Amino acid sequence: MTFEALGLSPAIVKALVDKGYTAPSPIQEQTIPVILQGKDIMACAQTGTGKTAGFVLPILQLLTTRPDVKSNRALVLVLTPTRELAAQVHESVRNYAKYERVSSTVVFGGVKINPQMMKLRTGVDILVATPGRLLDLYQQNAIKFTDIEILVLDEADRMLDMGFIHDIKRIIGLLPKTRQNLMFSATFSPEIKQLAKGFLNDPVEVSVSPQNTTATTVKQTIHSVDKSRKTQLLSHLIRTENWSQALVFCRTKHGANKLVKQLSLDNINAAAIHGNKSQAQRTKALDNFKQGLVQILVATDIAARGIDIDQLPQVVNYDLPNVPEDYVHRIGRTGRAGSNGQAISLVSSDEFKQLRDIERVIKCQLERVEIDGFKALDKLPESRTTQGGQPAPRRPHSANGRTNHFRGGQQRTNDNRNSQRD
């Protein structure tokens, strides 16, 4: 299958060739024809599968026959949950539209609103936005929704996780009733299906991989370690394995800042990205990481959404996530587009419940590898697999035979929720 065969113009194909893309990915093969037919779509795809191009490319093709846009209006609205993802989508639009006469802009919080209002005055074909900032602009009459013909809801599952449901419903209620709707999500949870019922019209369902599965190109390893020695082990791995780059996940903003300080004291160049950082700080940290000026990027789950780095070799779970599905999202940052990647989790005994939940979700037991000199005093137990293939890890037992009840299962912390209401 070629991009030409999918019905894309020579100008769009030329832009794809410039980026080194010669053949569509499975998600693109399935979504592009459906979108070109003007149908609504509900697509489930893992991160790193090329889903952004899966909706950007056909939208660009459709815009070649659309009328000129009016002032303070847009023809296509793309909603994303975070600033980083909004910027990433807009970058994709610009790359793929380089040989087309298509105007676009991106709006999100954390930066001044006046320059964004100025860009909207002449109107844009494609507007990429986070919900909060979009509503701010609407309330100031900087954007009118009367001409919206296509709505894209990207990473819908994360939208719901971050509490954007009311903003999304309000925005949908303001849009023209007749429009094409495209929804992309990493899962088809009951909540997502309920949301879809509210605004999708007889959608075509597309799923390129089983829900909550991890890429086969990612080697996953668990290192059991005492909590007090996690930073020491991380430094050891960075040096002995000669890591040039690694994306490290912490559960909290405070934990991310603390880890960066500890790594810096060990002469390891690290930077943090999370909701308490200004947009300028977050953009600088990400750019420095992409350029190789920063060796280790420490991130929280929400801030990492939208991070798209070609051939990122390592992802490290310094803390296991409380929500098991986030493990899939995290390690999806490596092993993209068929390249190999490595996902390493530093797991202490008090994270047993989180580990058990992750293994149940991904339906496999993660390989345990002990590192010489870092053997944990509190040994992490093995999992056992039930007949149905679902791992049912045993609870660890103390020396006296009684069960140790580890803490875990806390509610998801709203780590960046307030700062991300852009």
Question: What report would you give on this structure?
Answer:
Helix 2 packs parallel to helix 3 and helix 3 packs across helix 4. With 422 residues, this protein is of the alpha/beta class. It has 16 helices and 14 strands. It has 2 domains: 198 residues, Rossmann fold, CATH 3.40.50; 203 residues, Rossmann fold (3-Layer(aba) Sandwich), CATH 3.40.50.
Task: Provide key terms for this protein.
422 residues; alpha/beta; Rossmann fold; seven-stranded parallel beta sheet; 36% helix; globular; disordered C terminus
Write the layout of secondary structure elements.
Elements: H1 10-18, H2 26-36, E1 41-44, H3 51-63, E2 74-79, H4 83-96, E3 104-107, H5 114-121, E4 124-129, H6 131-139, E5 150-153, H7 156-161, H8 165-174, E6 180-185, H9 190-199, E7 204-207, E8 218-224, H10 230-240, E9 246-249, H11 253-265, E10 270-273, H12 279-290, E11 296-299, H13 301-304, E12 314-317, H14 325-331, E13 341-347, H15 352-362, E14 367-368, H16 417-420
Helix pairs in contact: 2-3, 3-4
